[in-house]
Amino acid sequence: MKRIRKIVRIDEDKCDGCGLCVPSCAEGAIQIIDGKAKVIHEALCDGIGNCLGECPQDAISIEEREAEDFDPDLVEKVTGHRPEVPAPTTGGCPGSATRTLRPTPAAGQAATTDDQPSALANWPVQLHLVPPSAPYLQGADLLIAADCVGFALPAFQRKLLEGRVLMIGCPKLDDGRFYQDKLTEVLQLNDIRSITIAYMEVPCCHGLVRLVRDAAAAAGSDVDIHSAMVTVDGELEEQAPDPAGSGGCPADREMPLIQLPNKQ
Question: What are the C-alpha distances in Å from 172 to residues 7, 46, 217?
């Protein structure tokens, strides 16, 4: 079946047949034929464009035209593995395509050195870009973190990220109302198990706690919400929000310290 969708286009006049694009295409859509890179079958190309950055001749681009639907079954026959990256259904930057990444490290395993795998389990991570229907959100433990947290906390991946789906944003510089509406939709569409809010100790960052709690209220969700405040000196204080309905900004109230739940 054919439809209008995004698909890789290779300019054969520019292509010198170097082959650097071939291994970057995990779906096996590109081969070198008669000295030129070619898409061997439209149904093998997901249109995400991982090959774009590999071409030194700038011969690869993404175009929108009528093409056969991306076929994961055909990819599995050609490559021996089933792709985890879905074909994009809307326009935009290929780098924003939804991805479920490699498994996270085992509990307790450090993930802060070069020889350890990353604990990041999803892409994209910017709250503006995460689709509310992304498959990795279903049944997820969310980590909603202020942008600065990952830089201030040396053990961010091991202490906060491991076992959680990440969303990041800045409650001061970004559109808080948009974030609240996005999170409300996320909670309405997915069975979210818990939310951990990681924010900096500076006053402008406290709004992240409020907008998450307001989103949960708007969605009618009773999801467990925990907060983790990070100091500018890189210290982590793990906290639990006070009961709802006591007035004032939740991030400004005194909160009892707790141990964040371990992920399975």
Answer: 38, 37, 21
Q: Which residues pair with 117 in a beta bridge?
A: none
Predicted TM-score (pTM) of the model is 0.56
Q: Are 160 and 152 in contact (CB under 8 A)?
A: no
Q: What is the pLDDT of residue 220?
A: 95
Residue 182, phi then psi, degrees to nearest 5: -65, -45
How many domains are contained in the chain? 2
Under 8 Å CB-to-CB from 128, ≥6 apart: which residues? 169, 174, 178, 182
**82 vs 74: CA distance, rounded Å:** 9
Domain annotation covers residue 260: no
Confidence of residue 153 (pLDDT cuts 50, 70, 90): very high
Domain enclosing residue 59, as ranges: 2-90
pLDDT digits (tens, 9 = 90+) for 48-93: 777 877 788 889 998 889 999 888 889 888 888 877 544 444 445 5
**From the CB of residue 114, how many other CB atoms can be counted at a distance below 10 Å?**
4
Query: Nearest 5 degrees, angle CA 33-CA 70-CA 16?
Result: 25
Average pLDDT over residues 12-39: 91
For residue 250, name the pLDDT band (cuts at 50, 70, 90): very low
| Residue 257 pLDDT > 80 | no
Residues 6 or more apart whose CB falls under 8 angstroms from that of 206 comprise: 171, 199, 249, 251, 252
Q: Does residue 22 sit in the same domain as residue 85?
A: yes
- Give me the CATH number covering residue 42: 3.30.70.20
The dihedral of CA 59, 62, 67, 70: what is its sign?
positive
* Whether 244 and 190 share a structural domain: yes
